[in-house]
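--- STAGE predict ---
source: upstream dedup step, 1 unique chain passed
mode: sequence only
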Amino acid sequence: MNTPLSALRRILCIGGGPAGLYFGLLMKRRYPDLQVTVVERNRPFDTFGWGVVFSDQTLQNLKRADPESAQQMADAFNHWDDIEVFYKDHSVRSTGHGFIGIGRKRLLNILQERCLALGVDLVFETDVTDDQALAQQYNADLVIASDGLNSRIRTRYEATYRPDIDTRKCRFVWLGTKKTFDAFTFAFEQTEHGWFQAHAYKFDDQTSTFIVETPEDVWQAHGIEQMSQEDGVAFCERLFAKYLDGNPLISNAKHLRGSANWIRFPRVICQTWVHWQDVAGKQTPIVLMGDAAHTAHFSIGSGTKLALEDAIDLADEFSGAAGRSESMAEVLQGYEARRSVEVLKIQNAARNSTEWFENVDRYTGMDIQQFAYSLLTRSQRISHENLRLRDPQWLEGYEAWLEAHNPHAPPLRVSLPPEGADPAWGGPAPDRAARHPTPPMLLPLTVRGLTLKNRIVVSPMAQYSATDGVAGDWHLVHLGARALGGAALVMVEMTSPTPEGRITPGCTGLWNYAQEVALRRIVDFVHSSSSARIGIQLGHSGAKGSTQLGWEQIDEPLPSPGGRPDSSPNWPLLSASAVPYGPQNQVPRAMTRADMDAMTAAFVESTRRAAAAGFDWLELHCAHGYLLSAFICPLTNQRTDDYGGSLENRCRYPLEVFSAVRAAWPADQPMSVRISAHDWAPGGNTPDDAVAIARLFKAAGCDVIDVSSGQTTRQARPVYGRMYQTPFADRVRNEAGILTMAVGAITEADHANSIIGAGRADLCAVARAHLADPAWTLHEAAKLQTRAIDWPRPYESGRDQIYREIARQQSLQAAQASPGETA
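--- STAGE serialize ---
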């Protein structure tokens, strides 16, 4: 495994698809003395499939790696900018997307010809059943396992590669047609059993790819499984006839019988990509590449892109290592480490896209305008501002439509600057807000009798700064500053109804009059000095109580003289069951019926105090492993009475508390519930459960579900990323039919605008970004140069300056991006 690079003489690529061919030619181009062999089971210049799609950026990567083959591809590419969506007898078309398509056969022919020109040995019609024997035959120093989706090599060494294969929910068939589409086309057709969708695009002057996809249950209901291949194709022709203009659909899978050409997409992830094997006494690396290592759903068109970029990366790694005296193992470790991260990003986007198409019915209550926007932004890689760069006219039209269809839109906000003000802020020109629609995140929202001025919420965040549960000056400044910072709703941190329900000694409480008075002081400031509204989150810590401050050892018990979590200064804990949060935490006592009654009464008393303090919004915390969450989560609820077992039973007590609190809270004021939509642990709640939980709270009178996840068990293994919890909010909103609040890694206006614009949530709770910048909302609005937001009067001169400076920077950036243009 410490083989020096100088020992690399012979490379064997098993599989002559894009990955194997491209890596072979790149290495031969850079190191002409290498002996490179690519072995393929099919005949020369023979292939299956229709067209493949790249972005313009991918072509730039190919030009850098091998200009000669890239130029041949460019000459063969069909380029288009438009996407057109057909839905419910309407269509929406947008431009600027920059796609290029090429026939898969033509692509492989170009790569094969380039390999031959460089001296790569191509061996065809060889079905490799024993990679070790072939490696020995060619005396290979490096084996590339580029043998595709159903890789035999990956299966043989699965103990090393540890593949995770997730077979997705939709059936799809890959067809072609002589109808040439002038845009990347998504067509949706509803049948008596459900929805079908077509993905169609032109890849040469005469032919288009035409993929038909539908959920498994819809496919079964139509009896396609029992159809012949010809009958299945004819079914698709009839269903999508209005898009085909009389052209037939064509299958090139005649070698398959019946409905075998309809498949379910397998998402492949491998934990490691390199296996070292003793071949005739020599340690030989066998390296996964392309579909053998990973797959990404065709709806984001990245499978071939990933394969080619795998090849580029490994070739670059060899080139870079040549001057660093690295071993073969170090080169391969670098390749795996870097590519696995890049692939994970693509696969996260592909997962979002896949799930969107698996659940088209979820979005069919939307009008065509929002349906198309949701489709375009489904992966979360294409954002609101990205769409503005691509097609500003279309996006501004969509913003105008969204504002006009917002039932709570106020009159157009026009706050002209003083006469003679700098034109960057408006000057004598018409106010920007009068000329441009309001960004989605700044649209108002009315819930019950409360109207929020925009969609941004300062998430409840523990400050660990209270004394005996009493909020002090820190809380006044913290919450007051954020109320002045542009957000519509500022939430007080989780506040306990009992002393023992605090997470730490520094957490706030609301069980006595002194605490009520301290909070009223904050509420009064927010109401008198800002246009924001203020809410409070009530919750009991349960098994996660009696722990250290957040900047000490978070979630760990308070230090005690004997090191015992159940000794002073720790206080006794209650939970659904006697299940500790961790082995070092105190074991809580399982609640009795009497405990439940007393706790419900405590929540009701805190609710009355919150109303007396003047709060506008109340949230019940049923997430993150705290008391009410511990009832809902099957990992922490081991009860055998009416409050354990089924999901309905597990939700029984949280619903009892909610109903009692709702009855005590003013009827015209909103209530939300925070849930953990995914426990991220085996045996825990899943997003399916989250929808059911939301429906139960909706039936009980909840107005908004605040959709978080995890933190219910130390065994949780979340998959983080930007807006990583937003898909859960999307699902709850559009399946349970209730307003949702998205939270988690929302850090830019672009994120919030995309979420609200797509109907994935109705509010965006921004946490850490507000810790770093109390005026986050004002500053993000300034970056958009929108006037649809109010600033505190004492801050208006600062407003004018920041708008001028951002406008100046944007003008400079635009000039630098277009050096050939004149003013």
